[in-house]
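Figure 3 (text version): C-alpha cells given as input.
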C-alpha cells in the first residue's frame, strides 16, 4: 500500500481516525481543512447488504465502509467519486454500490485487497490514506443478554452487548495502520455505531496496542443521537463506560451541546454545536471548525 499522501496545506497535525460507516466518513470530511496528514482506519467486519454478499461470494474483507471513506476524501471534481456511491436498483446487481464492485474487481485482478484500495484512491484523487483495519476478512463476536452473538448485523440488532471480540481471535492488522497510529498527533474514535464501527476497529489487537501506546491525543467523538438497538438508551456516560469496559480510555471526549456532565474521574469533555440539520449525524464543516480549534 502506498505511503501517506500530504494534503498540501500549512503544517498541521497528523490525524488518524478509526471507525466505520457514515460516522467515520463525516469525521474525515471534518478533518480535511486542518490536518496536514490524514489517515482513516476502517472496519471491514460488515456482513450485511452489498458488502456481506461480496464477502460470502468472493471471500473479501467488507468494502462498503472503505468505499464511503474513499468518497469522503476524494477530489471534489471527480465524476468517478460520485459514481462510487451509485447503487443499482434492479437486476442481478440490485443493492450493490458501484464502488464496492470496483474494489472487488480490482482486488480480484491484482490479487491484493490493499492494492485495490490504493488504486481506487488514485483514480478518485483521495487526499490522505485509507487503510482496512484488518488484512483479511473478520467476523465480529460478542456476548449479550440473549447469549453469544456472531456477525455485525446480529450484534447491531442486539442489546446488553459486552466482550466484543473477533473470529479469528487475533486478526492481522494493516501494518501501515499500526504505523500511522504510532506516528499520529491526534487519534479520533467515532462517531458511529459504538460496538459495530468504533470498537470493531480499535479492538483489533494490534490496533488496540498501538492506540494504547501512541503519544497522540486520543479523542472520542460522541454521537448526536442513539436509537439503534446496540446502543439504544445509551447516554454519553454509557458510551464512555463501554469503551472503558473494553480497555479504551480516551484523553478527551467531544460531545454535542446538551449532553450530560460526566463524573469527576471521567476524561474531560468539550461540548459543541455541530449537529447536522437532520438531528442525527454530524455536520462535517461545523465539526471541523470545532475540532480544528481544540
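Below: residues designed for each position.
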Amino acid at each position: 500500500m502506498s505511503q501517506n499522501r500530504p494534503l498540501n496545506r500549512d503544517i498541521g497535525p497528523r490525524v488518524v481516525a478509526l471507525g466505520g460507516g457514515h460516522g467515520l466518513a463525516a469525521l474525515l470530511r471534518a478533518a480535511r481543512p486542518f490536518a496536514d496528514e490524514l489517515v482513516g482506519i476502517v472496519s471491514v467486519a460488515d456482513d450485511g447488504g452489498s458488502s456481506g454478499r461480496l464477502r460470502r461470494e468472493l471471500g473479501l474483507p467488507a468494502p462498503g465502509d472503505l468505499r464511503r471513506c474513499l468518497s469522503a476524501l476524494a477530489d471534489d471534481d471527480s465524476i468517478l467519486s460520485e459514481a462510487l456511491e451509485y447503487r443499482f436498483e434492479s437486476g442481478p446487481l440490485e443493492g450493490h454500490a458501484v464502488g464496492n464492485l470496483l474494489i472487488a474487481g480490482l482486488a480480484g485482478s491484482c490479487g491484493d485487497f490493499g492494492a485495490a484500495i490504493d488504486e481506487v484512491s488514485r483514480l478518485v484523487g483521495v487526499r490522505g490514506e485509507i487503510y482496512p483495519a484488518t488484512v483479511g476478512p473478520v467476523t465480529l463476536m460478542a456476548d449479550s443478554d440473549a447469549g453469544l452473538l456472531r456477525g455485525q448485523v446480529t450484534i447491531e440488532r442486539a442489546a446488553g452487548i459486552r466482550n466484543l471480540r473477533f473470529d479469528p481471535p487475533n486478526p492481522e492488522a494493516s501494518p501501515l495502520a499500526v504505523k500511522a497510529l504510532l506516528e499520529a498527533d491526534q487519534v479520533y474514535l467515532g462517531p458511529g455505531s459504538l460496538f459495530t464501527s468504533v470498537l470493531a476497529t480499535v479492538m483489533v489487537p494490534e490496533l488496540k496496542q498501538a492506540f494504547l501506546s501512541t503519544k497522540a491525543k486520543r479523542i472520542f467523538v460522541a454521537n448526536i443521537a442513539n436509537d439503534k438497538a446496540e446502543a439504544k438508551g445509551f447516554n454519553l456516560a454509557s458510551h464512555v463506560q463501554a469503551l472503558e469496559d473494553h480497555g479504551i480510555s480516551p484523553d478527551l471526549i467531544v460531545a454535542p451541546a446538551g449532553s450530560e456532565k460526566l463524573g469527576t474521574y471521567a476524561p474531560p469533555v468539550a461540548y459543541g454545536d455541530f449537529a447536522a440539520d437532520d438531528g442525527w449525524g454530524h455536520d462535517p464543516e461545523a465539526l471541523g471548525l470545532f475540532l480544528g480549534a481544540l
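The chain has one domain: 14-292.
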